[in-house]
Design brief:
296 residues, 5-stranded mixed beta sheet, 3-stranded parallel beta sheet, disordered N terminus, binds glutamic acid
């Protein structure tokens, strides 16, 4: 994918130069070409270190981002096929700093269990998908961020008053997702809960409605998105874990990780992070303070 596009861009660059040479405009013509792009890749900040992922992506003019397609507020694919949500807006901010236009972002669905494999295989350049930074995952991928801090919580039918917190999950059937931190936490710390792990959180909604499970457990903000869309569902109790959301990228691509951290800090400063929040998750949830980026 990347090499095919790079080839195309190389071809285009050659023809641009050829045109410029023919018009006799020399440098002026090339400059004119560069300044008429209007929000396209031609406005890319030029000075990325040679050989860096930033330089490669900026030159390619596109980026492949893994996100969720089934989670309201953070990553939800709309009828036109493009996802919307806070994670998606964070992706657009990063792409924009590479000079990549929104239309040149390729969105790929990453469910919880395939985030690390998709990064490791290069199927995606980055993952922004309610993705908790933790030491186990850091053995195989790297993380920029965090850019938000969530916490595990519980969703039940509004009419079910029996479950108010994690200690009430003993003997209950709890739906969550394979490869997620809530799954691992339930198995390790709430062994009396009967965990049923499916592929995506939206797969848990019908089983909850028809009584096949008693609760869904994952991050509070994911559950808040489902509750906001479904008045028969309610989030229970306070969050009982810390889930700092990071941007997953190839292991040990330190320049890229540090550069994304810079972009995140800039977005905290210049209001673009807050705007991204207000337009998405902020329609339901209060605006948080931006977290401190962890430059490990
Ligand atoms: N943030 C948690 C995780 O990364 C749960 C949400 C999810 O599965 O995307 O595993």
């Amino acid at each position: 994918m990347r090499s095919a596009r790079t080839g195309l861009i190389a071809l285009l660059s050659v023809s641009t130069l050829a045109l410029a040479a023919c018009s006799g405009g020399g440098d002026d013509a090339v400059e004119a070409e560069e300044t008429t792009g209007g929000g396209t890749a031609s406005e890319a900040p030029a000075d990325f270190p040679e050989g860096s992922t930033m330089a490669a992506l900026a030159e390619e003019g596109s980026i492949t981002i893994g996100t969720k397609f089934d989670q309201p507020l953070f990553g939800l694919r709309g009828p036109d096929g493009t996802p919307t949500g806070f994670d998606v807006e964070i992706g657009k901010i990063i792409a924009g700093k590479l000079g990549i236009a929104e239309d040149d972002i390729e969105w790929v669905e990453t469910v919880s269990a395939n985030r690390e494999p998709f990064i490791q295989s290069g199927q995606v350049d980055i993952v922004i998908a309610t993705y908790t930074i933790n030491d186990t995952r850091k053995e195989v991928v790297s993380f920029a961020g965090p850019y938000y801090e969530a916490g595990q919580s519980i969703l039940t039918l509004t009419e079910n008053e029996d479950i108010q917190g994690p200690d009430d999950l003993a003997g209950k059937r709890v739906c969550t997702v394979s490869g997620s931190t809530p799954e691992a936490n339930l198995i390790e710390n709430y062994p009396e809960a009967e965990v049923q792990a499916l592929q995506a959180y939206s797969d848990c909604i019908e089983p909850l409605r028809n009584g096949q499970v008693d609760a869904i457990s994952t991050d509070n903000v994911i559950l808040a998105g489902f509750a906001a869309q479904n008045p028969d569902l309610e989030v229970r109790g306070e969050p009982f874990t810390e889930e700092p959301y990071g941007i997953g990228l190839a292991l040990d691509d330190t320049d890229f990780r540090m550069w994304i951290n810079d972009v995140l800090e800039e977005s905290f400063e210049d209001g673009s992070w807050e705007q991204a929040w207000t337009e998405t998750a902020g329609t339901v949830l209060p605006t948080p303070e931006p977290p401190a980026v962890d430059r490990y």
